[in-house]
């Protein structure tokens, strides 16, 4: 009860509720003279008034509170006056200064809220660039710019310039640190900038293969404990040791980096483990590599690691390991969307526009490359392990095909079957290859086209041109845009000598695939057969732009220029061939022939001598060299060449007579006599040998002269009798033909003549070999010397000695080129074809491939 106070009876509890502040009374504003005058002024300012203390113009009306007290209000009617000043006193600063009110307002200044009477603002205070902090900021900016320029230079391929920029950035950064220390702000050194400079410098050293400098720079970063996570850079150091083939140190640094990286960075740890596995693989420690790769395939499988795991198991010969690794490889998820999403499924134009925009963008290209790489690895591993995982490669291929059919790569099963047939081809088991390929005749069009193309190739090699033509048609019907099938069809038409039609097929193959070099090559050969030399030259010039340094193509170009009569151009192109194959004796001999035709004997001698040095069994080269030294009266030098010809053609007496003649011309009569006596023992009826024996015996006064004279007369008589018999036989045959013509004078009978045959017997002999060039050699480089020597041995009767300008005789392969298709795409693997050389005796000039070459 002590805290309870009772109200006094005479106290009015509701007094003061009707009292109010006159400041908020707006009804009398119209009668307020000061307010009305303020409204009429241009600045809206009330006239100056001096406050009267303690009240205002309205007067200080007391306001009663709830407790009955009367106090004057602090308002315009009774508040303490702030704007009022007494004379000589300055007005205190208040919060209304920002609105334009100042202490001088009472002294006659105008009210200027926008500050229009203040004049222009003073100029900004300039930065003091001489200050140490400003200099440091400028230097930091220069260092950053140099780092950026170094990176840009490396991205554009200017590695040396990038290194110079990185070195300059390092020098400026060191100067910056020294300036910080001198100014006493060493605690504010920019560690991030130092780290960036050192890392960029180490990278540029590594890119320029300055490995010791790069390692030293990385060591500076790693040893500095003030940098964040420097241990990761040990991966870079391990990469440098790997490049230096210092594999133990590379593994050491990879493991150190692995220890310093937490398990939170799983992807980084997986990549380091993959590097460790690759190093073990290079070192031949396949068991350790298998351990690393298997760990990766369990944690984060990828195609590359799976491929390496299969290789390691293959190297160790572990069949079960190979099977397990192959199954892990084909089960790796690619993370690629189905290609059906790129096929328009509706008629919505906006949706179709989006599909058209994304179906060939960078993401789709990346997905396509990733899928192609996976298919390549799977095909390679299947072909590798198929012969090793089972007792026969056929069983191994069947197991691989079954595994692939049960995986996400179902479409590769048919390609593996095609590879199985190709493996049969490499093993020369053509029957099994044909049976395997014939199983695809009822498959989808793509596989059918590939199988039919290969079958056409096989039958073409077996010279079963009808079957080759049949399967070429089947391949074309399955896929008309298959350039390999079109080329094979053109080849089968070519052997039937329908060159115009063959050219059409080759043109169509080029239209479907402009990079089909086989079609372009065979088209050029077809134009040569049609005697359209300019068109053929155009084809081979285009092909030369595609296949740089192809000696076959350049030989064809040289041959065409020779046929067109431009010998200088032919020589220039053959010189390019020599730059590619400097030891080809036939090209050297061809150059000698062309220089001889141009009258340049010295150059001809050089190239013929080089040809003889690389292939001393070419009878035409030997003949030219011997005849040249006879013409220049160097008989001693000619002897060695004619003796070589005697070894090559021992049944030809003319070479031995030339040897004896050289001895006789050089004045060595005794050696000449011995040589003639040896010839007489081998060829006793040779008249020329006996004549020289009689002459030499007479000059030397030998007693055998009478014996040789008797043998000479007998031989001449025998020769005369043989000539008379030949003449009489010719006369009787001519009389018989003349009588038959007289008997049939009144009858007109058509005479059928067979077409003129070429002087070269064409014999195509193709052999299937993997990973070959596109065409078989046009000019043999000495690899088929046995066949060449046999053909050249038969051609000796073209030579007339001692003339030195006889035409050069050699052989040239004549064959048609057909090829088969790899299942991953046409023209991936083609067997090499070879040709057997057959030269007719009456062919006395070198021809550079008038026929197609099968591919």
From TrEMBL:
Biased composition (Polar residues): 746-759, 797-811
Xref: InterPro entries: TPR-like_helical_dom_sf, TPR_rpt
Classification via SUPFAM superfamilies: TPR-like (SSF48452)
Biased composition (Acidic residues): 841-855
Keywords: TPR repeat
Segments for region (Disordered): 108-133, 714-855
UniProt repeat feature TPR, residue ranges: 231-264, 270-303, 483-516, 551-584, 585-618, 619-652, 653-686
Bias (Basic and acidic residues) ranges: 714-734, 829-840
The protein's name: Intraflagellar transport 88 homolog
Organism: Oryzias latipes (Japanese rice fish)
């Amino acid at each position: 009860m002590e805290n309870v106070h009772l109200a006094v009876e005479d106290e009015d509890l509701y007094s003061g509720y009707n009292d109010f502040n006159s400041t908020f009374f707006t009804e009398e504003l119209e009668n307020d003279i000061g307010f009305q005058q303020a409204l009429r002024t241009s600045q809206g300012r009330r006239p100056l008034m001096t406050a009267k203390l303690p009240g205002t113009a309205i007067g200080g009306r007391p306001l009663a509170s709830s407790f009955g007290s009367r106090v004057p209000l602090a308002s315009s009617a009774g508040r303490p006056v702030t704007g009022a000043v007494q004379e000589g006193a300055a007005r205190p600063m208040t919060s209304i200064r920002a609105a334009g009110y100042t202490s001088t307002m009472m002294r006659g200044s105008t009210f200027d809220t926008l500050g229009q009477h203040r004049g222009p603002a003073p100029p900004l205070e300039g930065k003091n660039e001489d200050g140490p902090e400003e200099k440091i900021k400028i230097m930091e900016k220069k260092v950053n710019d140099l780092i950026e320029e170094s990176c840009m230079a490396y991205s554009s391929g200017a590695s040396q310039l990038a290194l110079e920029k990185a070195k300059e950035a390092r020098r400026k950064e060191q100067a910056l640190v020294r300036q910080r220390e001198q100014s006493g702000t060493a605690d504010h050194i920019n560690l991030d900038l130092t780290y960036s400079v050192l890392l960029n410098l180490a990278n540029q050293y590594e890119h320029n293969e300055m490995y010791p400098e790069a390692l030293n720079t990385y060591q500076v970063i790693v040893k500095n404990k003030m940098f964040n996570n420097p241990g990761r850079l040990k991966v870079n150091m391990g990469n440098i040791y790997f490049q230096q083939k210092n594999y133990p140190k590379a593994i050491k640094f990879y493991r150190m980096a692995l220890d310093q990286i937490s398990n939170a960075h799983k992807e980084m740890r997986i990549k380091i483990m993959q590097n460790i596995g690759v190093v073990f693989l290079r070192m031949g420690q396949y068991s350790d590599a298998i351990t690393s790769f298997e760990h990766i395939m369990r944690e984060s499988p990828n195609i590359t690691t799976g491929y390496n795991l299969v290789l390691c198991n293959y190297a160790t010969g572990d069949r079960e390991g190979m099977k397990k690794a192959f199954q892990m490889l084909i089960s790796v998820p690619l993370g690629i969307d189905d290609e059906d999403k790129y096929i328009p499924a509706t008629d919505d134009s906006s949706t179709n526009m989006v599909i058209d925009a994304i179906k060939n963008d960078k993401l789709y290209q990346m997905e396509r490359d990733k899928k192609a790489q996976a298919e390549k690895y799977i095909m390679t591993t299947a072909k590798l392990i198929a012969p090793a995982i089972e007792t026969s490669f056929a069983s191994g291929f069947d197991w691989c095909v079954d595994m692939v059919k049960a995986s996400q790569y179902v479409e590769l099963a048919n390609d593996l079957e095609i590879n199985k047939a190709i493996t049969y081809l490499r093993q020369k088991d053509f029957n099994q290859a044909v049976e395997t390929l014939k199983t695809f005749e009822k498959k989808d069009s793509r596989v059918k086209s590939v199988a039919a193309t290969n079958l056409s190739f096989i039958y073409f090699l077996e010279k079963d041109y009808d079957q080759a033509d049949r399967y070429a048609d089947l391949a074309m019907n399955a896929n008309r845009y298959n350039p390999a099938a079109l080329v094979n069809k053109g080849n089968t038409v070519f052997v039937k000598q329908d060159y115009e039609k063959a050219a059409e097929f080759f043109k169509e193959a080029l239209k479907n695939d402009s990079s089909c070099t086989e079609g372009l090559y065979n088209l050029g050969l077809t134009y040569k057969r049609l005697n359209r030399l300019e068109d053929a030259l155009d084809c081979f010039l285009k092909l030369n732009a595609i296949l740089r340094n192809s000696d076959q193509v350049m030989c064809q170009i040289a041959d065409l220029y020779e046929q067109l009569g431009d010998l200088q151009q032919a020589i220039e192109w053959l010189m390019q061939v020599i730059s590619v194959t400097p030891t080809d004796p036939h090209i050297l001999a061809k150059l000698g022939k062309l220089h001889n035709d141009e009258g340049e004997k010295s150059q001809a001698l050089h190239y013929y001598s080089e040809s003889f040095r690389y292939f001393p069994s070419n009878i035409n080269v030997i003949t030219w060299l011997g005849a040249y030294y006879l013409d220049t009266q160097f008989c001693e030098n000619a002897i060695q060449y004619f003796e070589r010809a005697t070894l090559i053609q021992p049944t030809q007496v003319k070479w031995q007579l030339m040897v004896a003649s050289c001895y006789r011309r050089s004045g060595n009569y005794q050696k000449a006599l011995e040589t003639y006596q040896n010839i007489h023992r081998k060829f006793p009826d040779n008249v020329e040998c006996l004549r020289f024996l009689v002459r030499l015996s007479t000059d030397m006064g030998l007693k055998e002269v009478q014996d040789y004279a008797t043998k000479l007369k007998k031989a001449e008589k025998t020769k005369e009798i043989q000539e008379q018999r030949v003449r009489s036989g010719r006369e009787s045959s001519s009389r018989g033909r003349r009588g038959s013509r007289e008997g049939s004078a009144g009858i007109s009978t058509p005479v059928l003549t067979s077409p003129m045959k070429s002087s070269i017997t064409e014999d195509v002999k193709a052999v299937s070999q993997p990973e070959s060039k596109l065409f078989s050699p046009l000019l043999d480089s000495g690899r088929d010397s046995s066949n060449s020597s046999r053909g050249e041995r038969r051609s000796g009767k073209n030579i007339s000695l001692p003339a030195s300008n006889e035409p050069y005789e050699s052989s040239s392969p004549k064959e048609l080129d057909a090829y088969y298709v790899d299942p991953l795409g046409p023209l991936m693997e083609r067997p090499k074809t070879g040709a057997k050389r057959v030269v007719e005796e009456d062919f006395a000039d070198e021809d550079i491939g008038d026929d197609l070459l099968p591919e």
